[in-house]
Amino acid sequence: MKTVHTILREDFGVLDANLIRTEILSATGVHNVAFEPACKGLAIDYDPAVLTPPKLFELMCRCGVYPAPQDSSADHHSRPAGQ
Question: Element (H or E) spanning 36, and its range?
Fold first, then answer.
């Protein structure tokens, strides 16, 4: 089991957050979804053997949950040269 943490681009109200949580939880391989309203955070516990990271990202986007872009200068140091 893996957990993906992300910061969302927008704050969802309680009703929308519950609907999104229910939709993501209905996907095969997802075990838990938790919103952190104070920091617009989202944590999803999933089984990568059942739900690959690209499919998880697709699911999130289909549910209207778009992760905020990361700071490219911070990410630059963690990527291999030439990428």
Answer: strand 30-36
Give yes or no for a contact between 66 and 8, defined as CB atoms under 8 angstroms apart.
yes
Spell out the domains of the chain, with CATH numbers in brackets: 2-69 (3.30.70.100)
Are 67 and 7 a contacting pair, CB within 8 Å?
A: yes
pTM of the model: 0.72
In sequence order, which ranges of 1-83 are alpha helices (DSSP H)? 14-25, 53-62, 72-76
Query: Distance (Å, rounded) from C-alpha 77 to C-alpha 37?
Result: 30
pLDDT digits (tens, 9 = 90+) for 24-51: 999 999 999 998 777 778 899 999 999 9
Dig out the tokens for 19 from the structure: 């609907």
Closest CA to 35 of 56, 12, 67, 52: 12
Query: Beta-carbon neighbour count of residue 35 at 10 Å?
Result: 20
